[in-house]
Design a protein that fits this description.
- By secondary structure, the protein is α/β, with parallel strands linked by helices.
- It has one domain: Rossmann fold.
- The strands form 2 sheets. Strands 4-3-5-6-7 form a 5-stranded parallel beta sheet, with helices on both faces. It has a two-stranded antiparallel sheet with strand order 1-2.
- Helix 3 links the parallel strand 5 and strand 6.
- The protein is globular, with a radius of gyration of 14 Å.
- The termini are close together.
Length: 128
């Protein structure tokens, strides 16, 4: 099964799929970024909220992955804020999901929850 690496924008031009990974753990973000790049996606990393907001203002991302446990601000707050400023699909990520975590992030407007470590093929299939 082929993964769609490019798609047509509103003007009919072909462009690559862009993903922003917001995670303060550089090794985790690095592995995730490398795997996503292997599937042909363009990937940016933000290791704190300031970098994340900078990139969201500078680029249009098709998908934003937000770690729920970040220093200084919760991922829930970031999701809530981003929902008001972007049309990107947002997925929450966590290694500490509870029964209510999925419901909570979906109420904020996220498209889903990825439990770390997550199955990359499953995630890429969801993006398709």
């Amino acid at each position: 099964m082929a993964i769609q690496k490019e798609f047509k924008d509103l003007e009919g031009k072909s462009r690559s799929f862009k993903i922003l990974v917001i995670d303060d753990e550089a090794p985790v973000a690095g592995v995730l970024s490398r795997k996503l790049k292997e599937y042909g996606f363009q990937v940016w990393n933000a290791y704190n909220v300031e970098e994340a907001l900078f990139w969201v203002e500078e680029e249009h991302f098709d998908v934003i992955l937000v770690d729920l446990v970040l220093p200084g601000v919760s991922g829930y707050s970031i999701i809530n804020y981003l929902r008001g400023m972007t049309h990107s699909s947002i997925f929450a990520m966590t290694g500490y999901a509870s029964e209510n975590t999925l419901r909570d992030v979906e109420l904020l407007g996220a498209q889903g929850l990825l439990s770390k470590p997550f199955d990359m093929e499953y995630f890429v299939a969801r993006l398709r």
